[in-house]
């Protein structure tokens, strides 16, 4: 039984007439955000938004469901924390190091998994992520259950101190905006078009002469790298790298964010990340109910709301415009 | 008494026994996953949670109703299996025409709900569950001490696994099942209600998970986290064995449990990762798993 691909809901994500407006709105939100909301919370949401956008390159635009993205987030977060704390690197170098580690890990895991498809792919990436989890649990440099604590934020290029939350926020917001534009650019490049062709009909893409496996691998590595960027920054924001980032629940959470926001949409994952992070914030005192609510959102999204927030919005928007 | 590489035979056989016990649970759980995967083409992420529920039903039967182990061994799989039937009937069946990844995501969400609910009610520390009086004590085999309950778990799960294998490969019902896996439309045309068969298959797989849960209750404590702790390892077992192979999942389940136990003896640091390392190696050599068919 062949079936609709996961991202069926948005057949042409922002195709053709892309407008500048959403990006302006995004920039304005980023600028006025900290005057309305606590900056640390905003930074957390932005890190997860970056994570979800990176993840969406795979799920939304290549049609691959990875259930092991926590491995990249966590390893990058440990690496950049280690680089900043033990080696005393400046933040940009620590982040670059963490990102590179995620990229390397992504290359290795990608080469091992990319030949598998669908459910197999999900399952195998999950197992590899779990391997990374046990490695982090036992390795010396990660500090086991304690993690790496009180990581110094340091000074950007050795000049600008990131100690205050506001300075850190500006840095995170700028990196987020650039990453977001970059992902948008990549998705709409010829490379992105091939990825979408792979998602829609892999056999046809092969018969058209594309080396599909290489494209998929490239998408995987790209996604892992940007996930690593999010993880590295997160470690500096919270001055902490811990096991939470490597658990399989984290891999599930990013799927949830993407699904809720809208698989295969540009803004969906960011919106989903915002909703989930704020939900966790408000429900934090309720303990295990967070799990129940997350699960319930999952079930609702899958059963009745497969387009996600942004997907649904753009569906009705286009419908109205067409008359 | 003898020693290999400075390890006493007692330690060796002790770990071997633990490995076999773990292997028994891996085998039963991956068998259920394989059966479900064969019919529904989804990886049942709720499997771990349902295994946990199976153990909790046994615990609740004992503590709320005073119903003992032997009845729990029957009632808990039936109750949990019924829950599985409801899940299939009202949720999974509506996703049949969509990408199978949605099924995976749905079962993942359900797993979160179940785990969250039980953690909310029972906390995350374990609750004790005593083995039945008939199976307490143990036998001295000369080279090691074998607790009776563990011997029972290993032999009973072997019987269940091989029974399931026999039922699927060598009975009429099993042949319907295999035929429906290959070509549901054709089997439907022969007048067999494939839809109901899918539902019941799911219920059966869930029942197996619950049965494993009841068996596990006296060994590990009954704990809301017991499902998510084991399920990821079982996924790796399924990948190694090859998806959908019944006998393959049984053999790999036991073998990997033993491999894990032996690693604990000779190189304890690697004991939690060894299965994943084996998985990586198997994937490099045989991407479809040891017993899997190519897709």
Walk me through what this model shows:
The complex is a heterodimer of chains A (323) and B (295). Chain A is mainly alpha-helical and 323 residues long. Chain A has 13 helices and two strands. Chain A has a domain at 37-247. Chain A has helices spanning 21-36, 39-59, 70-85, 91-113, 118-138, 165-187, 190-200, 202-207, 212-238, 248-261, 268-283, 289-304, 308-322; strands at 155-156, 160-161. In chain A, strand 1 and strand 2 (160-161) form a beta hairpin. In chain A, helix 1 runs antiparallel to helix 6, helix 2 (39-59) runs parallel beside helix 6 (165-187) and helix 2 packs across helix 10. The radius of gyration of chain A is 19 Å and the shape is globular. Chain B is mainly α and 295 residues long. Chain B has a single domain (3-126, 137-285), classed as ABC transporter involved in vitamin B12 uptake, BtuC (Orthogonal Bundle), CATH 1.10.3470. In chain B, 71% of the residues lie in helices and 3% in strands. Chain B has helices at 9-40, 47-65, 69-90, 100-122, 148-170, 172-182, 184-189, 194-216, 226-241, 246-266, 274-285, and strands spanning 3-4, 7-8, 138-140, 145-147. In chain B, strand 1 and strand 2 form a beta hairpin. The termini of chain B are far apart. The interface between A and B is large, with 48 and 49 residues.
* Total domain modules of chain B: 1
Structural class of chain A: mainly alpha
Oligomer: heterodimer
* CATH class term of chain B: Mainly Alpha
Helix content of chain A: 55-70%
- What is the terminal separation of chain B in angstroms? 49 Å
**Helix content bin of chain B:** over 70%
How many strands appear in the DSSP assignment of chain A? 2
């Amino acid at each position: 039984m062949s079936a609709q691909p996961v991202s069926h809901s948005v057949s042409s994500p922002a195709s053709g007439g892309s407008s500048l407006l959403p990006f302006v709105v995004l920039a304005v939100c980023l600028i006025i955000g900290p005057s309305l909301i606590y900056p640390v919370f905003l930074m957390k949401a932005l890190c997860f938004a970056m994570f979800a956008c990176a993840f969406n390159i795979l799920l939304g635009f290549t049609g691959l469901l990875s259930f092991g993205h926590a491995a990249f987030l966590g390893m990058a977060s440990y690496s950049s924390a280690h680089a900043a704390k033990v080696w005393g690197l400046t933040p940009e170098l620590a982040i670059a190091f963490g990102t590179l580690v995620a990229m390397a890990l992504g290359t290795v895991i990608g080469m091992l998994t990319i030949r598998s498809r669908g459910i197999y792919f999900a399952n195998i990436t999950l197992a590899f992520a779990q391997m990374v989890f046990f490695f982090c649990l036992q390795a010396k440099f990660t500090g086991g259950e304690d993690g790496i604590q009180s990581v110094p934020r340091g000074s950007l290029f050795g000049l600008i101190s990131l100690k205050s939350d506001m300075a850190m926020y500006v840095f995170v917001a700028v990196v987020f905006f650039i990453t977001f534009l970059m992902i948008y650019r990549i998705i709409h490049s010829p490379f992105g078009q091939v990825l979408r062709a792979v998602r829609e009909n892999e056999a046809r893409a092969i018969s058209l002469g594309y080396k599909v496996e290489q494209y998929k691998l490239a998408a995987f590595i790209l996604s892992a790298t940007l996930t690593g960027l999010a993880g590295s920054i997160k470690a500096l924001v919270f001055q902490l790298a811990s096991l939470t980032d490597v658990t399989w629940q984290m891999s599930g959470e990013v799927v949830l964010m993407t699904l809720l926001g809208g698989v295969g949409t540009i803004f969906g994952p960011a919106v989903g990340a915002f909703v989930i992070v704020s939900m966790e914030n408000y429900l934090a005192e309720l303990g295990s109910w967070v799990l129940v609510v997350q699960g319930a959102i999952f079930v609702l999204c899958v059963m009745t709301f497969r387009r996600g927030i942004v997907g649904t919005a753009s569906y009705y928007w286009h419908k109205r415009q067409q008359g | 008494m003898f020693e290999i590489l400075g390890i006493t035979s007692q330690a060796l056989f002790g770990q071997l026994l633990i490995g076999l016990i773990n292997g028994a649970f891996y085998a039963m759980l991956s068998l259920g996953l394989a059966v479900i995967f064969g019919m529904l083409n989804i990886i049942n992420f709720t499997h771990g949670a349902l295994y946990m529920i199976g153990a909790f039903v046994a615990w609740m039967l004992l503590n709320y109703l005073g119903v003992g182990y032997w009845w729990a061994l029957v009632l808990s799989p039936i109750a949990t299996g019924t829950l599985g039937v409801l899940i299939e009937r009202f949720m999974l069946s509506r996703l049949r025409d969509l990408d199978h990844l949605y099924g995976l995501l749905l079962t993942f969400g359900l797993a979160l709900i179940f785990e969250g609910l039980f953690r909310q009610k029972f906390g995350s520390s374990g609750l004790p569950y005593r083995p039945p009086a008939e199976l307490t004590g143990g036998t001295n085999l000369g080279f090691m001490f074998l607790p009776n309950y563990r011997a029972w778990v290993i032999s009973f799960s072997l019987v269940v696994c091989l029974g399931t294998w026999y039922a699927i490969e060598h009975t009429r019902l099993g042949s319907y099942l295999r035929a429906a896996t290959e070509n549901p439309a054709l089997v439907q045309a022969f007048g067999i209600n494939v839809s109901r068969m899918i539902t019941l298959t799911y219920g059966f797989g869930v029942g197996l998970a619950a049965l494993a849960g009841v068996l596990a209750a006296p060994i590990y404590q009954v704990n809301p986290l017991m499902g998510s702790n084991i399920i990821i390892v079982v996924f790796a077992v399924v990948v190694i064995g090859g998806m959908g192979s019944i006998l393959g999942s049984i053999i790999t389940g036991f073998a990997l449990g033993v491999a894990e136990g032996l690693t604990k003896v000779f190189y304890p640091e690697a004991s939690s990762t060894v299965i994943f390392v084996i998985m990586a190696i198997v994937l490099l050599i045989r991407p479809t798993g040891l017993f899997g068919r190519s897709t």
